[in-house]
Structure formats: C-alpha cells, structure tokens
C-alpha cells in the first residue's frame, strides 16, 4: 500500500500499467529529489515568498492607479515614473532601515528638484541672452498662441538653443560627479544617489529644450509629484503590509546564532569523541605511513583523516557571517519604536554576550589545532624510525598519556556542551526569543511571579525556563569546575611528573619560536599540561559568558519586565548617534560590495593626525581646515569615481544636447541608458566585470518575462498589471537572497516596469497625447528589445569608464584592505594593553574615574572587534571579485593574499580571546574571600609586568604601512619575542607556578594568556613571511661583491 500511495502522486505524468507502477515510482523518485534540492538551494520558504510578493507590490500598484483618469491627468507623460520609483524603494527591508532610506530618498529628491530649477534658470538665462529681444518675443508669442488655441506643441516644434544646451550639459556633469562622489564616500547613500541621478538625467535634457518657465516648472513639478507618489506607495506597503521590524530581524539572528553555537559545540564534541575512540596518535601515524608529517604545524594543511573538521569550519563560517549581520542590525533595532519587552539597553547587553560567545567559539575552533600540534610535535620528536624496544616502549607510553589527555578533554567537553546548551535554552525561553506557545509563556510568567517550580513535572529535575533552573545550572557549573579540577589532579597523578617539571616555565613553551637559543625545551608532559590549562580557561570563559546571559534573562523575568509589554522608543542619545551615523563614513552596514573603512573614534585623541598641519589655533585656521577638506575631497579617489561616472553619463547623454541628435535622444528613450549608468557604476573593476555579465543577463531575463507577461494574457491591460506582480517578484528574489548583487535585481525590475509602464501609459493617454513628449509609440515586441538595448548600452558605458581609466582595482583594494585590517589589529592590541594596565591600577581601588575609563576602553574594544569582522567580510568579496579582473603580466599571488587574510583572522580571534582572558583574570583576582599568600603573589606579579612593550603593535603598524603603500619592509623585519616571566618570577616566590596551585583559576588564566601570546607570535611570524613575499624587503647585500 505504501508503494501505491507513492505512485498515485506520479500518475499525472503517465498512465502506466499495474505491473509498471513500481518501476515508474523508482524512476520519478530522483526527479522529486532534485526538485527538492533545487527548492532548498533557492531558499524558498514562506517568509521569502511573502517578501518577494511584497517587494513587487508597489510598482504593481503604481501601474494600476495610473488607469484612473484623474491620476493620468495629473501625471500625463511622466506617469511611468511612479512604478519605477516605487520599485527602487525596496519596501521589503526591515522598518528602521526602510524609514531611514525613505527619509534620505525624499531629501535627495527635494535637493534634485531645487538644483534642477537652478539649472533650468541658468539655461533660460543663457537662451535669452543668446537671442535678440525680437526673437524672444516671437517665441513667446507662438507659445501663447498655441496655448490659447488648445494646441499642444510637441518637442519637435520647439526651437533648439545651443547656449541653453551647453549650460544644462555642464550642470548635468557637475551633479552626476557630485552625487557619485558622495555615494562613493558614503556607501549607505547608494539608493538616494540613484534617485538623485534619475531625477537630473530626466530633467536636464528637457530643461535644455523648453524655452519658458511656463513649460519648465509644470514638468519639474509633475516629475517631483511622481517621485513622491512612488515613495508613498512604497511607504504604504512597507509599513502596513506584512511589516517587519529590525528588532524582529535582530532577535531572529540572535536566536539563529545561539542555535548555531549549540550545533558547532556538538560537532566539536563529536570530533573529540572520535579522536578518543580511534586514537589520535595511532591514526596519524597510520595515515602518514612515513615522515611526511615532519613539517611545521603552522604551514601544513590538516590531513583529511580524523583531523578533518570541514563541518565545524563550515558552521563557524556561517556564525561569522551571521555575527557580522548582527553587528549591522543591532543599531537599527535600538532605533525602533515598538511595543514590546526588551529595551535598547537590553539589546545592547545581549549583543555584548553574543560578542563574548563568538570569542569563545574562536577558541573552541582552535582545540583541534592545538591537539594536532601536540601530536605532531611528538611525531617530530620521535621520528617513528623504529629504534630499540626501549625507545618503542617510551613512545607507547607517551602515546598513551596523550590519549589520556584526550579522554579527559572528552569527558569535560561533553559536560561543557550540556551547560552551554541549558543556558541557551533557558535564556531563549525567558527572553521569549524562540517563540514558545502562548500557553507556555503564560505558565512561565505565572511560575516566576509566584516563585514556584515545576520540578515534579520533569522527574525531579529542573528544566530550562523553570524558576529554579538557574540555581540548578549554577550548581551544575560548580560541579563542572570540581570535575575539571579532579580531572587535572588525576592527570597529574597518572602522568607521574618529575620534580623538575612540577614548576612550569612559561617562557619555554615554544622554544622554536623563542629568541633565546639556550632555553630548555618543554617536556611532553608540560605541553599536555599547557593545553589542558588553556582548555580549562576556555571552559571557564565560556561558562562565565553564558551564565551572564542566563542571569540577565532571569533578572528580566523576575523583575516583571517580561510580564507586560511597554512602549519602547529610542533615547535622545540614540537619535544623536543615528544622525551622526547617517553623515558618517564609518558604518558597519554593507550596501555595496568592496566597502573599506578607516578607524574613527568620537574622541579627537584617537583620530589620525594631519602630518602636514598642526591643530588650528584660531578661527582663521579653523576656517582654512574646513576649506582644505573640500580641496582634499575634490582630489580624492571618490571624486575620481564621480568624474568617471560623469564621463560615462555624457558618453550617452551628449546626444541630448546636440542639435542633430537631441530629437533622437528623446524619441528613442535613450535617457534610460544614462539612468542605468547611475545604477551600474561600480567602485572596482573586478566587480564591474562580474556585474556587466550579471546585469545584462538580468535585463535579458526581465525582457523575456515582460514578453511572456504580455502575451500570456493576450495584451489585456488588467491581465498585464495583475500578472506583472508575479513576474516582478522573481526579480526581488535576487535582492532578498543575494543582497551583494542587488543591482542585478534592481535593473530587472526597472526593465520590466519601463516596458510595461510605457505600454499601459500609451493605452491610457492615447498615442497622440502620449507622444507630446517626443517619444514614439512602439509595439511591445519592438519596445522590449529597444529597452534592453538602452540598458545594455548604459551598462557597457559604465563598464568601460570603470575599467579603462584604471579606477580602483579589487586587487589593490584587497591589499589596502588587509593593511587597514592590520592597523585595526594594532589598535585592538594597544587597547587590550591599556585595559590590562588599567586593571592593574584598579586592583586595590574602585575609583569612579577608573571605572569610566574602563567602560570607555570596553566600548572602543568592541567597536574595533566589530569593525574587524566587517572588514573581513568585505575582504572576502574583494578576494572573489579579483578573479574577474583582466590579468595583464604576471599572475596575482592569490594564495599568499588568502594566507594573509586567514592569518589576520586567526590573530583577531586570538587577541579577542586574550582580551576576554584578561577580563576574567581581573575578576577572579578581585573575587572576595581570596587571602592566600599565593593570591598576593599573583597580584604582585601583575603589578610588576612591563606594560610599556608595544613591539607587537609596532610590527603590525609596519606591516600595515607596507601593504597600504606597497613599499618594502625594513631590513631584518622579524616578529618580537614572547614576553618572558623569568625576571618577574625571580623577584617573587619562584614556586608560584608549581602544580600544587593548579586548582586556582588564576593559574589557568595565566597559562592561557601565555599560550595565546606564543600562538600569536607564531601567527605573526607567518604574517611577516607572507608580507615579505608580496612587498619584499630592503636588502642590498646582493649588490655587494664579497
């Protein structure tokens, strides 16, 4: 019967015989599987389909309302602009983003209207001064006679004036340059700049033709009303039909991030369990079969055996992308006006916990790397050359002890995953981020208000969401700490460390990377101990971060703030920050591929100084500084892009200002070729090459959809408008699912609307009235290819003027972006050092100024971390688009650049984990109840640390400057040595790091910080080597004849 029911779904394909039913089902099953895979690849769920239909609704409404006679009389020949502008508003965006972009669109339209009036006035003055008084009077008399007789003059009947055309052409060049340069400087103004360019590209040619104010002002007024009507339709749909708030988007992203966190932790737990079950060292030897593993661990790719962590890396990549989106959407969520539970401060606190969790996950990702390093170290040490039976027995003992360490890690890591999993469930339930059923929400509120528990309902155990679960979770964390300490003590006992190994010397943990040659190499047991202590600190950091989130959720629930919704609105400070963010160039959102930013802080002490000018001292110097900013802007790369955009526009728009071609320009609607340039102009050449093919293919598909749309309903206007909603929603799929290539979907929408908008406009007005603007009527099978040709010509012009003058190359932007990333890392490291120095001063006092400084440093550190993640995502785009650039000369060293990018990502994660370790070290040292002599020695050691050593930041700045400028590195550029504790320890109790103190959390924190310092130096050695391969090093020894 199961087979029969399955076949019944397939009987519409054919009518097989009863004996062939099973065979038919077997044949069709792969087809259904492929269709399911295609559906999953497209990502078509209910929310996506609704957003696609929502995005196509405003232009559909724009074409529909034009069929009303009153609307057609109002807009006349510019009615097609309403659906075009409505489609460009992208109403499916979340509310705060949408409101911001609509305010900027309206402001850009108002500015374009005012500047068009000014340009028209200048053109009229040029026209009137180039003609005699008699000629002007004759033209005015003819226009007045035509108006009184009810005859409408067409464009062909208007006199051409070269002076007015030249003035309007100059205004067009200037305005296109200005808008494109500002868009290049502030990427978030992309769509307002496009709206501005559309307005001036339409208005400038007409204002050069029209000889009087009586013809110009009504036209500009109708264009402005058409723009505002398109905005109104988009606002109506965006805010009233399936509204989506940025708060909801941010909450969904946070929930997804926490769920992915659980997934990656479980994947890592399964990976460690696999190492335990198979035997790490044994498997590695059998996989190699030789001494092929005797290479540097940092430069070798992981083997495709039990060390393979492809699934983990893939999930971590998803987490990185999602974390970048969270950092982009959190500010918008804080600006929302809503009726809910969580305020802007609550969202900020949750984002802080998310950031700490992301840092912990970076450490989790490195667990496998550290294990592999330890195993390969033992392989290198022994060589596996056979040897005597005694040597073989020693190798077996070492292998067994390494596997014992993995077994300890397997047991503790599983418990760590259970704690994190419970804390995530508890937090999501109490904060109502995972949408529990309404009945469950009411039960939770009732339990917390009465302080009761449903322990009995769950077999005597508290469950996530229960009022007693946090206490149970804290007890579980305490038990977990005891388990870890017991495991370490057990490992110390079974390892049988010698007395010389009982005191761990952190300076000798990685002798191959140390600058001092006579250091005693660390023993195998010390390496294992260091790894276990580092993982112990990682567990402590992870549980601390997640417990903070769980306590925050518990506090919100117990305070009653989650019992009743309240009106939430942004504070005055948030609004001020929003205004500053709109005009700032330092934003985290990514509207256009290839955005790179510099580090900027609100405090002037952290801004880059002008190397050519001292700070201004009087009003005259301050005024000169402002004027100098204008001078620098004109000579900047952003201004160059604006110049090339103006050249690309005038390559086509020049036809509108010449006597022999201005009629052709209007007649054949060539204006849309110049409009497509504003949409297609790319900041980099690689993206331009890729975008050229994508935009042309998108326009071809849009034209095909338009013809299908027209003929499937046999050309009936009602059917065209109704069916266009479905076809235009296909274009919005690209905007929603591939936002980096949103321009392709936008051009598809514009192509679809232009063809059908013109067609429905001609049908409503009639051919005679619709042709007053000078545009000839064509049937759809001619109009479609003509529009496609115009859009293609605009895309090709934009492509030529992006590639030919040598604007920004993706390869050069990749190199400069890596330099910017290194500069941010140097700032981040300096901020960590300053934070640690401040915490040392704060050991014995809690003074208010120190607390304020700590908060300020924390904000700067978080800002730098988010900026680093954002730039990392941008560098991925540059790395992918550089493959599309023409390769003239030698090959591009993409492997070296990718290696630098990966190393920078590792450095960023290690530094972030070091920062979090420093914070936990400070909190553990200052914890009440500690009065031991060992504790006092730790405090004294912290105070004696040399915090004036900024050699790490110095080398990062040198590498950053070399990549940014392309200059060679200084001679003998090497990574600085790791900081040694020997000198400080000799002035204290040299027994401070004896293993008898292993149960103290500060012990693990110090071990982790020193291990991270050594790993950071290892990455820095690799980074210096890769940068040297790219830019070279100053060295004239080859020219000396010894």
TrEMBL record:
<feature type="transmembrane region" description="Helical">
    <location>
        <begin position="780"/>
        <end position="804"/>
    </location>
</feature>
<feature type="transmembrane region" description="Helical">
    <location>
        <begin position="219"/>
        <end position="242"/>
    </location>
</feature>
<keyword id="KW-0472">Membrane</keyword>
<feature type="transmembrane region" description="Helical">
    <location>
        <begin position="670"/>
        <end position="690"/>
    </location>
</feature>
<feature type="domain" description="DUF2421">
    <location>
        <begin position="854"/>
        <end position="1033"/>
    </location>
</feature>
<dbReference type="GO" id="GO:0016020">
    <property type="term" value="C:membrane"/>
</dbReference>
<feature type="domain" description="Integral membrane bound transporter">
    <location>
        <begin position="665"/>
        <end position="801"/>
    </location>
</feature>
<keyword id="KW-1133">Transmembrane helix</keyword>
<dbReference type="Pfam" id="PF10334">
    <property type="entry name" value="BRE4"/>
</dbReference>
<dbReference type="Pfam" id="PF10337">
    <property type="entry name" value="ArAE_2_N"/>
</dbReference>
<feature type="transmembrane region" description="Helical">
    <location>
        <begin position="189"/>
        <end position="207"/>
    </location>
</feature>
<feature type="transmembrane region" description="Helical">
    <location>
        <begin position="37"/>
        <end position="57"/>
    </location>
</feature>
<feature type="domain" description="Putative ER transporter 6TM N-terminal">
    <location>
        <begin position="39"/>
        <end position="396"/>
    </location>
</feature>
<feature type="transmembrane region" description="Helical">
    <location>
        <begin position="164"/>
        <end position="182"/>
    </location>
</feature>
<dbReference type="InterPro" id="IPR049453">
    <property type="entry name" value="Memb_transporter_dom"/>
</dbReference>
<protein>
    <recommendedName>
        <fullName>ER transporter 6TM N-terminal domain-containing protein</fullName>
    </recommendedName>
</protein>
<dbReference type="InterPro" id="IPR018820">
    <property type="entry name" value="BRE4-related_DUF2421"/>
</dbReference>
<keyword id="KW-0812">Transmembrane</keyword>
<dbReference type="Pfam" id="PF13515">
    <property type="entry name" value="FUSC_2"/>
</dbReference>
<feature type="transmembrane region" description="Helical">
    <location>
        <begin position="77"/>
        <end position="94"/>
    </location>
</feature>
<dbReference type="InterPro" id="IPR018823">
    <property type="entry name" value="ArAE_2_N"/>
</dbReference>
<feature type="transmembrane region" description="Helical">
    <location>
        <begin position="101"/>
        <end position="121"/>
    </location>
</feature>
<feature type="transmembrane region" description="Helical">
    <location>
        <begin position="641"/>
        <end position="658"/>
    </location>
</feature>
<feature type="transmembrane region" description="Helical">
    <location>
        <begin position="742"/>
        <end position="759"/>
    </location>
</feature>
């Amino acid at each position: 019967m199961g087979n029969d029911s399955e076949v019944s779904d397939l009987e519409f394909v054919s009518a097989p015989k009863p004996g062939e039913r099973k065979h038919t089902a077997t044949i069709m099953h792969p087809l259904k599987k492929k269709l399911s895979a295609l559906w999953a690849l497209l990502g078509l769920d209910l929310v996506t389909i609704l957003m696609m239909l929502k995005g196509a609704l405003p232009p559909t409404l724009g074409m529909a309302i034009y069929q009303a006679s009153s609307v057609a009389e109002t807009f006349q020949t510019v009615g097609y602009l309403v659906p075009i502008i409505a489609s460009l508003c992208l109403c499916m965006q979340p509310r705060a983003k949408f409101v911001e972009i609509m305010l900027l669109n309206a402001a850009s339209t108002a500015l374009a209207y005012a500047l068009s009036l000014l340009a028209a006035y200048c053109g009229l003055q040029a026209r009137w001064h180039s003609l005699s008084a008699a000629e002007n009077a004759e033209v005015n008399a003819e226009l007045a006679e035509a108006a009184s007789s009810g005859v409408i003059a067409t464009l062909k009947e208007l006199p051409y004036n070269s002076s007015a055309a030249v003035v309007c052409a100059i205004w067009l060049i200037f305005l296109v340059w200005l808008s494109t340069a500002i868009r290049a400087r502030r990427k978030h103004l992309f769509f307002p700049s496009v709206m501005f360019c559309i307005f001036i590209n339409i208005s400038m040619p007409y204002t050069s033709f029209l000889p009087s104010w009586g013809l110009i002002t009504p036209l500009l007024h109708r264009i402005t009303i058409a723009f505002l009507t398109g905005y109104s339709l988009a606002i109506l749909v965006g805010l009233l039909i399936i509204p989506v708030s940025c708060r909801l988007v941010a909450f969904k992203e946070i929930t997804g991030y926490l769920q992915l966190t659980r997934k990656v932790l479980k994947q890592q737990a399964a990976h460690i369990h696999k190492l335990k079950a198979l035997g790490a060292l044994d498997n590695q030897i059998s996989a190699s079969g030789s001494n092929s593993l005797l290479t540097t661990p940092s430069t070798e790719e992981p083997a495709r055996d039990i060390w393979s962590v492809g699934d983990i890396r893939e999930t971590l990549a998803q987490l990185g992308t999602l974390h970048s989106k969270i950092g982009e959407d959190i500010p918008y969520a804080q600006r929302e006006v809503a009726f809910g539970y969580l305020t802007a401060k609550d969202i900020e606190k949750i984002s802080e916990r998310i950031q700490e969790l992301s840092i912990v996950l970076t450490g989790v990702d490195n667990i496998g790397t550290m294990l592999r390093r330890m195993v390969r170290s033992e392989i290198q040490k022994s060589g596996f050359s056979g040897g005597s039976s005694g040597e073989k027995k020693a190798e077996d003992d070492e292998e067994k002890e390494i596997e014992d360490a993995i077994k300890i890690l397997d047991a503790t890591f599983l418990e760590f995953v259970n704690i994190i999993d419970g804390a995530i469930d508890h937090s999501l339930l109490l904060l109502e981020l995972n949408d529990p059923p309404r009945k469950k929400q009411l039960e939770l509120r009732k339990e917390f208000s009465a302080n009761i528990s449903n322990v009995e309902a769950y077999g005597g155990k508290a469950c996530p969401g229960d009022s007693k679960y946090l206490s149970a979770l804290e007890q579980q964390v305490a038990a977990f700490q005891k388990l870890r300490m017991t495991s370490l003590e057990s490992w110390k006992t079974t390892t049988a460390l010698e007395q010389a190994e009982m005191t761990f010397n952190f300076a000798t943990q990685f002798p191959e990377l140390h600058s001092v040659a006579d250091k005693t190499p660390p023993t195998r047991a010390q390496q294992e101990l260091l790894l276990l202590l580092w993982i112990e600190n990682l567990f402590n950091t992870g549980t601390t971060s997640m417990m903070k989130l769980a306590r925050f959720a518990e506090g919100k629930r117990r305070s009653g703030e989650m019992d009743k919704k309240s009106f939430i609105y942004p504070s005055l400070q948030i609004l001020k920050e929003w205004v500053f963010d709109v005009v700032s160039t330092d934003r985290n959102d990514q509207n256009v591929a290839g955005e790179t930013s510099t580090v900027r802080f609100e405090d002037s002490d952290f801004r880059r100084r002008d190397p050519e000018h001292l700070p201004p001292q009087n009003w005259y110097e301050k005024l000169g500084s402002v004027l100098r900013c204008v001078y620098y802007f004109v000579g900047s790369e952003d201004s160059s892009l604006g110049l090339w955009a103006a050249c690309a526009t005038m390559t086509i728009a020049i036809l509108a200002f010449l006597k022999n071609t201005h009629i052709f320009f209007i007649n054949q609607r060539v204006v849309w070729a110049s409009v497509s340039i504003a949409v297609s102009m790319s900041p980099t050449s690689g993206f331009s090459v890729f975008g050229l093919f994508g935009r042309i293919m998108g326009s071809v598909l849009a034209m095909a959809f338009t013809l299908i749309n027209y003929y499937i309903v046999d050309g009936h206007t009602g059917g065209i408008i109704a069916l266009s909603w479905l076809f235009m929603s296909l274009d919005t799929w690209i905007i929603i699912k591939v936002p980096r290539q949103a321009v392709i979907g936008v051009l598809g929408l514009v192509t679809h609307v232009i063809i059908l908008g013109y067609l429905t406009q001609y049908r409503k007005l009639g051919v005679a009235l619709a042709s007053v603007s000078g545009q000839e009527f064509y049937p759809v099978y001619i109009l479609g290819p003509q529009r496609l040709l115009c859009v293609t010509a605009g895309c090709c012009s934009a492509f030529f003027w992006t590639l030919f003058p040598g604007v920004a190359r993706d390869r050069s932007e990749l190199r400069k972006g890596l330099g910017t990333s290194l500069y941010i890392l140097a700032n981040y490291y300096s901020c960590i050092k300053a934070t640690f120095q401040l915490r040392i001063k704060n050991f014995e006092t809690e003074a208010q100024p120190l607390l304020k400084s700590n908060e300020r440093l924390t904000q700067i550190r978080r800002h730098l971390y988010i900026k680093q993640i954002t730039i990392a995502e941008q560098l991925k785009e540059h790395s992918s688009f550089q493959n599309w650039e023409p390769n003239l000369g030698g090959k591009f060293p993409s492997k070296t650049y990718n290696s630098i990018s990966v190393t920078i990502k590792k450095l960023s994660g290690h530094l972030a984990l070091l920062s979090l370790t420093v914070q936990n070290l400070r909190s553990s040292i200052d914890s009440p109840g500690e009065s031991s002599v060992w504790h006092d020695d730790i405090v004294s050691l912290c105070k004696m640390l040399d915090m004036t050593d900024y050699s790490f930041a110095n080398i990062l700045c040198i590498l950053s400057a070399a990549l940014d400028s392309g200059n060679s590195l200084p001679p003998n550029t090497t990574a600085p040595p790791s900081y040694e504790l020997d000198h400080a320890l000799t002035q204290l109790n040299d027994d401070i790091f004896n293993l008898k103190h292993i149960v103290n959390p500060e012990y693990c924190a110090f071990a982790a910080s020193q291990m991270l310092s050594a790993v950071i130096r290892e990455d820095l050695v690799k980074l210096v080597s890769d940068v040297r391969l790219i830019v070279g090093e100053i060295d004239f020894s080859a020219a000396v004849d010894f």
